[in-house]
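During the second half of the funding period, the structural biology subgroup turned its attention to how the target accommodates small molecules. The most pressing case was zinc ion, which had performed well in the primary screen but for which no bound structure existed. We therefore specified the complex as follows and requested a full 3D prediction, including the ligand pose.
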Amino acid sequence: MKYFLFICSLAFTLMIAGCGTSNSSSKPAREFTKNGQAQKLESSSASSSLTKSNVDETVVIANPESVTALVNKKHQLPESYQPSDLVYADVPFIFNEKIEKRMLRKPAAQALEELFRDAEKEGISLLGVSGYRSHERQKELFAFYAKRDGEEQARTYSAYPGTSEHETGLAIDVTGGSGMCAAADCFADTPEAHWLSKNAYQYGFIIRYPEGEEQVTGYKYEPWHLRYVGKKAAASIFNQYATLETYANKKKV
Ligand SMILES: [Zn+2]
């Protein structure tokens, strides 16, 4: 029974935190050196316990601390990266425990608190679902699914370790005050999702995986996944670029 509960808990955790489907192919990771040249890595930096057969052609990013850092299926965080300024976000969550998922990097947490307060004033009640996730935790979750369904299948619904935005401490999944539709497609039609799509940029957040941009982001539409990029970049992406990928390409972040 205990084992069963653990599995269910793990499954739920990943289900609400998987955030996206994958269009993967398999190539070794590369790393950008300081002078901008790419270097091949001998093996994926994501996890030694996972097979390398399906590793994307990814580069390890050189600016993980930047709030506009691009992390996606082709751009992964350094293996040893851990954000240095994580704090517990002072907003209500769908759970009560004081655990890792409540954390964000400080500027993102402060901006989220302001966003939640202002939303509430307009009758929009929000709850946090899942914020920061450590690299170790992502590896653990991915390994669980890879073991159960095979790595290729796992990649269709779970981010490969090192490529999840949740590892940056700048991303959070949110839902409405009822707790319904947490990280589910039905969230798209709620007043909370509409409010976020119109207003989140004013607080420095973007809807990271917008509708119709699947080919650019590599993820299906996720109206619940907010990414902090700072107010200036968020306004620019909201008004002009639509995705962080396009913005990063133009701005060379
Ligand atoms: Zn997410």
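Two results from this model are relevant to the next phase. The longest helix spans residues 2-17. The chain has one domain: 2-251.
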